[in-house]
Amino acid sequence: MLGMLNLHEFAFGPTGINPIVGTARNPWNRDYVSGGSSSGSGCATAAALAMATLGSDTGGSIRIPAALCGVVGLKQTYGLASRAGIYPLCESLDHGGPLARTVRDAALVLAAIAGPDPADPSTDHARLADYTALLGKPLGGLRIGVPRDFFFDRLHGEVEAAVQTALAVLADLGAVVEEVVLPFNRDATQGWNVMAMAEAHTVHEGHLQDHADELSPDVHERLQLGIGVSATDYIRSRQSQTKVRREMAGVLAQTPILAMPTAVIPSVPIESGTVMVDGREVVGWKALGQLTRLAAFTGQPALSIPCGFTEAGLPIGLQLLGSWFEEPLLLQVADAYEQATEWHRRRPVLGP
Known about the structure:
- Helix content is 36%, strand content 17%.
- The protein is of the alpha+beta class and 352 residues long.
- It has one domain (9-119, 130-345): Amidase signature (AS) domain (Amidase signature (AS) enzymes), CATH 3.90.1300.
- An eight-stranded mixed beta sheet has the order 3-5-4-11-12-8-6-7, sandwiched between helices. Strands 1-2 form a two-stranded antiparallel sheet. The chain has a two-stranded antiparallel sheet with strand order 9-10.
- α1 (39-46) packs parallel to α2 (63-69), α5 (185-211) crosses α6 (217-224) and α5 packs across α7.
C-alpha cells in the first residue's frame, strides 16, 4: 500500500472537483477533471503512480474516473468484495473495486479483494471464481446487447463515434452484437435517485446540521435532496430495485453482456465544469453519472475500458455490463477488446 488518494468530498459527485482539499487533475490535461468520485484513483493509475488503485462506486464513481482518465475501472457484483473501512454513502448501493491500466491487472486485484468478510454482511453470499481463467479466450458467438434508447441519446459526437467503432471491433472478434431494449432503465434511474439521496442524507444528517457551511457547495446541495424523501417513496424504490433486477436477468439470459458508453461526454474543464455538445452547454456534474447508475442499482458487475480519445486528447470509455458473479466473462470480453486495440498502451506525457 503506497498511500491515500484524493476524491470528491464524501464520494458524492462525478467530477472530482473538491474545493476543500483540492482537485485531482487529469493527467491527459491538467486543466480538466479526472472524474469522480474516485478522482485520485483514476489520476494516479493513469499517471502510473501505482500499478492499480482502489475506488468506491455508488452510481459510477469507479467507472467515471476510469473513462475520463483512460484506464480500466471495475465495479464488481454487489457483495463480492468487502466495503469494510470505506466511509459509507449509500449502504444499499456502495461498492468497492479496482482501477488498473489493463484488464488483467484489474482481474488480479479483484482476486485479492474478493470474498466473504465478517465485517461486511453484504459479502455473506459472495461467489468466488478464477478471474483470469477466460482471459485470452475467443468471443465467437457470444451475444452482446446494445441498448440504444437513453444510453445513446444526445451523446458528445466524439464519444458516440468511438463507442460505435468499439462495437464494430467486438463484432470483428466474433461476437454477435445486437440491439436490445431496457424498458426498465428510467425506473432504475428514478429508484436510484430516491434510494441514494435518502440513505446519503441519513449518513450525513449530522454534517448538515452542524457543519453545513464547511461542506462543498455541490455536496451540500445534493445532501439536501434527501430531506423530503418519504418512507413510502423509499420502500417503493426498494421494490423497484427487485423488479429491475428480475427484468435485467431476463435480458442477460439472452445477451449475457451489454455494451454502451460509460459517459455521455468526455472530461470537462475544472474551471467551468461544462462542455459544449451540439451547440448546448452540458454541465459535467449533471451529465457524467447518467449512464452508470443502472448497474449500481441492480448490483451487477460493470466496467469501463478505454476505447478512444477526442481530438483534444481526452480519453473515452466503453462500458460493459454482465450478470451477477459472472466477472470472468465480463473480463474476458474486456480483455479481448483490449488486446485488439492499442488504447491501453497510450500514456499521458508527464512533466512540469
